Amino acid sequence: MKAAVVYYTRFGHNTVIARTIAEKLGAEQFRIETPGDPIFPVMGFCSWFNVRMKVKSMKTDFSNYDLVVLCLPIWAWKPAPPGRTFLNEAKLPRKLALSFSTGGGPIQRAEEKTRELLQGRDIEIVAVGEINTDKADEEYLKTEAKAFAERLASG
Ligand SMILES: Cc1cc2nc3c(=O)[nH]c(=O)nc-3n(C[C@H](O)[C@H](O)[C@H](O)COP(=O)(O)O)c2cc1C
């Protein structure tokens, strides 16, 4: 299985999560980056009001992969907007897995929002993972990310 792990992080947790999943799957890693570091109110506002956040130029054609694993933080109950920009612009394979990191809140709304963005495209969400990063140390993040990667590897 040729997999790519694509992630966005603002505070570093998804760097650990994405790296762990990529190592476990033998996948390449790609980082979504914004031109600057957005501040908290801007992050919350853009997420809540569905404002597009600009991302730096990156690889967008993933059509020759079997699976893309997208690792994103949740902001205001939805996937962080830089991840949404990626979802809108990327050419994805048929299989997409989502790993959401949270501060302990629910992920249902984020999953629904992602499905809405993918509407009309031939993409199946094969797995949705959830990692609470509130008070999480690196070991905890690695353990949770490894467990998610094992779920993906076992199909
Ligand atoms: C603007 C903002 C909004 C957030 N909204 C939520 C939320 O609705 N639900 C939740 O569980 N966590 C929320 N969080 C917490 C983040 O999801 C959490 O800190 C995330 O795992 C950080 O990932 P990172 O370190 O890779 O940037 C929010 C954080 C920020 C900065």
Rg, nearest Å:
14 Å
The name CATH uses for the topology is Rossmann fold
The N- and C-terminal alpha carbons lie at a distance of: 10 Å
What is the count of β-strands?
Answer: 6
Q: What's the number of helices?
A: 5
- The figure for the number of domains is 1
Shape: globular
How many strands, which pairing sense, and closed or not: the largest β-sheet?
6 strands, mixed
Your description of this structure?
This protein has 155 residues and is an alpha/beta fold. It has a single domain, classed as Rossmann fold. It is 37% helix and 25% strand. The chain contains 5 helices and 6 strands. Strands 1, 2, 3, 4, 5 and 6 form a 6-stranded mixed β-sheet that branches. A hairpin with a 2-residue loop joins strand 3 (67-75) and strand 4. Helix 1 (13-25) packs parallel to helix 5. The chain is globular, with a radius of gyration of 14 Å. The termini are close together. The structure holds flavin mononucleotide (FMN).
Features:
single chain; 155 residues; alpha/beta; Rossmann fold; 6-stranded mixed sheet; 5 helices; 37% helix; binds flavin mononucleotide
What is the strand and helix layout of this fold?
Blueprint: E1 3-8, H1 13-25, E2 28-32, H2 40-48, E3 67-75, E4 78-79, H3 81-89, E5 95-102, H4 108-118, E6 124-132, H5 138-153
Parallel strand pairs: 1-2, 1-3, 3-5, 5-6
Antiparallel strand pairs: 3-4
Helix pairs in contact: 1-5
The chain binds flavin mononucleotide (FMN).
